[in-house]
Every structure is written in structure tokens, then in C-alpha cells.
Amino acid sequence: RHKGALLNYLFKMVSDFLNLTCGGIAGCVSRTIVSPLERLKILYQVQYVALAGGAAQGGQEKYLGMIDSLKKIFKEEGMKGFFRGNGANCIRVFPYVGLQFLFFDKYKTGFMKYKILGDQTGKLNAHQKLVVGALAGTTSVVFTYPLDFARARLTVQGGVSATQYRGIMHVLRDASQKEGVSVLFRGMVPTLLGVAPYVGVNYLVYETLKELCPIPEGEKQPSATWLGACGAIAGTTGQTVAYPMDLLRRRFQVVLPDGTAMYRGVWDGVSTIVRKEGFLGLYKGFGPNFIKVVPTIAVMFWTNDMLLRTLNKMGY
């Protein structure tokens, strides 16, 4: 009996490790593909901080049109400018997305086992999908937030910041020494407020559409094309709902030239942006983000499903 229990435990650990790894690889692949647009989005989001602090060149925003901004990045920083901060992003994304898929599976099992928010068996209802996705997203944020903070600081340097960090550990060490350890979690509240609906809607839309897709004869899952389309629609829907909190998160993560934070809290940030920049100020950078989020989420869900499908065929 003990031997059987041990084997079950080891099998469960291997299964969790494979889920984590597949999700992590899927996240890194998807983020690298759209890295130029991801960096441009963050520069759009935070350049107002430099402008407000008097550090912007000529007293005006540096990045305006999408194409012109990409040309400016290439002219000033070369091809590597498009991927500045991507290494740090992948180090963050691997555990973030991996844990997200892993916790979604764990919460999904728990919700069905204990019939939370529903009493059906076999699959989650709409409410369960939304809540399970939100829980998976917020849990993964709690575990990986300092890495996201470091990625933001690395991404803006050379664009709207004059800092010269050498890597993730340098950011974490330097920021905590100069601004206190708590700075590593600055912006976590708007992040959680944004991630909960974003990831919740992502999983709700993706899992619901996936159930409606046709399944080829002899297969257990829809084709890769259908999975990619489901992911694209899910990502677009989720990002539209949660984008203002994503913008606020970035502004909390960078500081004014004098080292102070721009806003006192979430409500102060939202009200200040609307008052000084208008309602559309909450959606600065939404253009490149909208373009990149479609392939990002599509590739992420597709890659994860394909890796898991391959492992299942191999007997894992």
C-alpha cells in the first residue's frame, strides 16, 4: 500500500512539473515573438512619468506614432533595442505562466471535487472558469511580482530612463537598498486588480470556445488552428477589460527623477490620469498592446496545449 501511495505521489509531482514546464515554455515563446511591441507598450505607458518629472527631452513625449516609435528605437538602440528587457521578461514569464497553468489545473480540480459555485461534474461552468482563472492569475502574481518589477525597470532604460542596470539581480539589489524592500512590491495592488479579471476572462473565453470547437476524427482535442483562434479571441477580450490597471502598474514600478512615486495609491493614480490626460490616458499604449496580445495569448495557449498533447502521446 505504501509503495503504491509513493508511486502516486511521485507521478503527481512529475505531472505538476510537466504542467509547469509546458506553461513556462509557452509563455517564453509567446512573449519573445512580440517583444518589440511589448517594449513599445511599456514605453508609452511610462514616458509620462519622465515628462512629469522634467526628464523628457524637449518637454514632450518622445514616443508617439507606433511606426515612428519603432523606427526611433531601432535608430537609437539598434535591433537589440526591440528586445531590451526580454531576457528578464522570460525569467519572469517562465514561472509566472507556468504557475498560472499549474494553479488553474489545481483550482479546477478542487472546484469540481468540492462542487464550489456549481454541482455539475466533468467540466467547469462559466462562473467557475472565471473565478478559477482569476485565482490562478493572482496566485502566480504573488509568487513572481518582484521579477515583474525588475523587468519594468530594465525595459524602460535607454528609452525614457537614464538608469543602467546590468540585470535582474542588480535591479532588485539596487532598488531595495535605495528605496527599501517594499519598493519591489510597489504596484502590486493594481496588478492584482488587473490580473484577476484579465486572466479570469482569458480562461473563461478560451475554455468556453474550446468546448465549442470541432474535434477531428480520431483526436481528443480541437486542431491547432482552432486553439490559436480561441486564444486570440480570449486575449483580446481579457486585455480590453483589464488594461487601465496594467498601465497603472507600470507607472507605480518606475519613479520620478527625484526618486519619488508618482501616485499615492490606486484611486489617486486613476483620478490623476483622467484629470490630467483624459479618460483615454488610461489606455496609453493600448494600440501596440492590442496588436501584440492576439499572437501572445494565441501562441501561449496553443504551445501549452501542443506540448501537453505531445507528452500524452509519449505516455507521460
Explain what this protein looks like in three dimensions.
The protein is mainly α and 316 residues long. The chain is 72% helix and 0% strand. The chain is built from 10 helices and no strands. It has helices at residues 2-33, 35-52, 66-77, 86-113, 126-156, 168-179, 188-212, 224-253, 266-277, 286-313. The chain is globular, with a radius of gyration of 21 Å. The mean pLDDT is 87.
In short:
The chain is an all-alpha fold and 316 residues long.
Task: Give the topology.
Layout: H1 2-33, H2 35-52, H3 66-77, H4 86-113, H5 126-156, H6 168-179, H7 188-212, H8 224-253, H9 266-277, H10 286-313
Chain-averaged pLDDT: 87
N-to-C order of helices and strands: HHHHHHHHHH
Low-confidence stretches: none
First and last CA, distance: 23 Å
Give the fraction of residues assigned to helices. Answer: over 70%
Q: What gyration radius follows from the Cα positions, in whole Å?
A: 21 Å
Oligomeric state of shown chains: single chain
Going by helix content, strand content and strand pairing, the class is mainly alpha
Strand proportion, as a percent range, falls in under 5%
Total helical segments: 10
